[in-house]
Design a protein that fits this description.
The complex is a heterodimer of chains A (263) and B (325). Chain A is α/β, with parallel strands linked by helices. Chain A is 39% helix and 25% strand. The longest helix of chain A is centred in the middle third of the chain and has 14 residues. Chain B folds into 2 domains: 35 residues; 232 residues, MetI-like fold. The longest helix of chain B has 36 residues. Chain B is globular. Classes of the chains: A alpha/beta (263), B mainly alpha (325). At the A-B interface, helix 3, helix 4 and helix 7 of A face helix 8, helix 9 and helix 12 of B.
């Protein structure tokens, strides 16, 4: 194996997800055009861009959540550890067990805090009560929520504040041990303090998970992400290391957007 | 100079505008009218029944105790519950009628709840849109069929089919009446359950899917529990419809007042069918007349209590879904 081949192989080891020639349509409307993007393992990739640029649509394609939308069609290849998740014979449920998702609006189930976190394990077939209890604790700790809720695990999750609910949703996602976590504007409905907590959490989670986050706030992208992808009108305009993107963007559109001239 | 509004001492400038106050009052009056209507119906029915407590004519013919308890009539060798208003002496025991009503209703509910809820789940969660657009209006149309037509169908078609299939001793019986009744209740339970299932926020479904839930797991563990208050409301409404339904049971139940608690293949006579069949035949103020109104009062009370019970259950379920304590 030559040096260059080794370098490529090493680089590939670093890539968790690859998307190749991805086109996404809603009926006759094309929402995403020919996107090629690599998502690096154990890092945070931020997707930014003005409203309607397709970044959420693209995110939802990464764990086949778009399957639930009747008119939505995805073309191209999206690889997770080198396997195309859109291959025929791939069960989207298996994909979603490895690629979790946190939504814009916190959406806890109308159940207890404990049952919310345990949900993913139970539907996955876990029966052992001790295992479940242990994993719930671990996940709540992982989402920096344990200390706030440990005395009221059996009370309703709907009694938590907005920020706590969103961290509960993150804990619920962590409990099934995903490899990739997709976050769709996870802090957009939260106040600055709660937002800061979520951002801190994202930086911690990066150690163990691959995170892709859609955000409206460029400051947030700058604060939490290692890589940034800028989408405009359904196309990937520019992709690079976050510090480079925000200091020396190579494309005019990117510069205009991050300097706040439109969007 | 600023124009100044003349103000009386009584009229504060912070008062709600007059027409708002009038409108609010008007709405209150309309709401009260609906409640008053129900109260008045109850009062007018009760007014026909209550005189049985003191009327000499009634006491001569009937003892109040015999309305509810078994009695050993002349010619019988044990105490029995009998409804024989034209017998000599006339026997007015209401128990066989209530047993009949409850038997038919219970059986109809046992058939309708799984059918209605299951159908609602299928249409709301599984059926392709094209199927949904045909099936939903079709089932709702079923609710619009006059009950006399359904009664006729039960009497002619279902009764023969059921006898041929299950080998019933009596052609018309509680089972046949319950099947006919179910035809009217299933649409009620279906429509309300389907709406409740549709109303479950999509965000919950997505959350469950994103955690790797399969479709049936989303349906059984998330959607149906969240829709339970609505489904319960449909069941309560269906129950009210079932116990009050008259024409189908009048036509398809066989109409003999037999006191038999557990055998569902016997002929039954319901409270509603009895009132419908007999009230036109009796003289006003007659003891028989009074007893029929007593049946009405009791039916009203049973429905009322069960409705309140249903409401309490629905509120409990609702509370569990929104509890913030």
């Amino acid at each position: 194996m030559s040096e260059s081949q080794k370098a490529v192989a090493e680089a590939r080891n670093d890539v968790k997800m690859e998307t190749r020639n991805v086109n996404i349509f809603y009926g006759a409307n094309q929402a995403i055009r020919d996107v090629d993007l690599d998502i690096t393992d154990r890092s945070v990739t931020a997707l930014i861009g003005p409203s309607g640029c397709g970044k959420s649509t693209y995110l939802r394609a990464l764990n086949r959540m778009n399957d639930t939308i009747h008119s939505c069609r995805v073309e191209g290849r999206i690889l997770l550890d080198g396997e195309n998740i859109y291959d025929r014979g791939v069960d989207p449920v298996e994909v979603r067990r490895r690629v979790g998702m946190v939504f814009q609006k916190s959406n806890p189930f109308p159940k207890s805090i404990f049952d919310n976190v345990a949900f993913g394990l139970r539907i996955g077939g876990e029966k052992d009560k001790d295992v479940i209890a242990q994993r719930v604790e671990e996940s709540l700790k992982g989402a920096a929520l344990w200390d706030e809720v440990k005395d009221r695990l059996q009370s309703s999750a709907l009694g938590l504040s907005g920020g706590q609910q969103q961290r509960l949703c993150i804990a619920r996602c962590l409990a099934v041990w995903p490899e990739v976590i997709l976050m769709d504007e996870p802090a957009s409905a939260l106040d600055p303090l709660a937002t800061a907590k979520i951002e801190e959490l994202i930086r911690e989670l990066r150690e163990r998970y691959t995170i892709v986050i859609v955000t409206h706030s460029m400051q947030q992208a700058a604060r939490v992400s290692d890589f940034t992808a800028f989408f405009y009108m359904g196309e990937l305009v520019e992709y690079g290391k976050t510090d480079m993107m925000f200091t020396r963007p190579t494309k005019k559109r990117t510069e205009e957007y991050i300097s706040g001239r439109f969007g | 100079m600023r124009p100044r509004r003349a103000k009386s001492k009584l009229e504060s400038s912070f008062r709600t505008p007059l027409w708002h106050r009038i409108a609010e009052r008007a709405i209150a009056v309309l709401a009260l009218a609906a409640i008053a209507a129900i109260a008045l119906i109850f009062i007018f029915i009760a007014r026909e029944a209550v005189p049985m407590l003191w009327e000499a004519e009634f006491a001569e013919e009937v003892q109040i105790r015999d309305l509810f308890f078994a009695k050993e009539w002349k010619g019988y060798d044990e105490p029995v519950f009998v409804w024989q208003p034209v017998g000599e002496p006339a026997k007015f025991n209401v128990m066989p009628l209530f047993v009949g009503s409850l038997k038919v209703t219970l059986l109809a509910m046992l058939m309708s709840i799984p059918l209605g809820v299951g159908c609602a789940m299928f249409i709301a969660l599984y059926a392709p849109r094209a199927v949904r657009e045909v099936v939903k209006p079709a089932i709702e149309l079923l609710a619009g069929i006059p009950s006399v037509v359904l009664g006729f169908f039960a009497l002619m078609v279902i009764a023969s089919w059921a006898q041929a299939t299950f080998g019933f001793h009596f052609r018309l019986n509680a089972v046949v009446a319950a099947i006919g009744l179910a035809l009217t209740i299933v649409p009620v339970i279906f429509t309300i359950s389907e709406d409740a299932i549709q109303a479950v926020p999509n965000t919950l479904t997505e959350a469950a899917l994103a955690l790797g839930a399969r479709k049936y797991q989303v349906a059984l563990r998330i959607v149906v529990p969240a829709a339970l208050p609505g489904i319960a409301a449909g069941v309560v409404l269906g129950f009210g419809r079932a116990i009050g339904e008259t024409m189908i049971v009048l036509m398809a139940s066989g109409n003999a007042a037999i006191m038999e608690l557990f055998d569902f293949t016997t002929i039954v006579r319901t409270v509603t069918a009895t009132i419908a069949a007999e009230l036109g035949e009796v003289a006003q103020g007659d003891p028989h007349w009074r007893v029929l109104f007593l049946l009405g009062v009791m039916l009203f009370a049973v429905t009322f209590v069960l409705n309140i019970l249903g409401d309490v259950i629905i509120q409990r379920l609702q509370k569990r879904l929104t509890a913030s304590s």
